[in-house]
Design a protein that fits this description.
Layout: H1 10-68
Keywords: Coiled coil, Cytoplasm, Cytoskeleton
Family: Belongs to the BRK1 family.
Protein name: BRICK1 subunit of SCAR/WAVE actin nucleating complex
């Protein structure tokens, strides 16, 4: 049955289900994006912490070498 051949009282119900399915798809997509962004944030923070640690070590080495010269 198409929308035009359905009884008038069924059209709002059919539209409601279509809207609910659409909202469910959008909600699922938003959740996937949120999960990805949270994972990306965690990964970036970890990498930045590692780089910060390496940079701090290099700065200490430079200070040590400068002190010896």
């Amino acid at each position: 049955l198409t929308m035009s051949t359905q009884p008038a009282h069924q059209r709002p119900l059919q539209q409601d289900w279509a809207n609910r399915e659409y909202i469910e798809v959008i909600t699922g997509s938003i959740k996937k994006i949120t999960d990805f962004l949270n994972s990306f944030d965690t990964s970036c923070r970890s990498r930045l912490a590692s780089l910060n640690q390496k940079l701090t070590e290099l700065e200490r080495r430079v200070e040590y070498i400068e002190a010896r010269v």
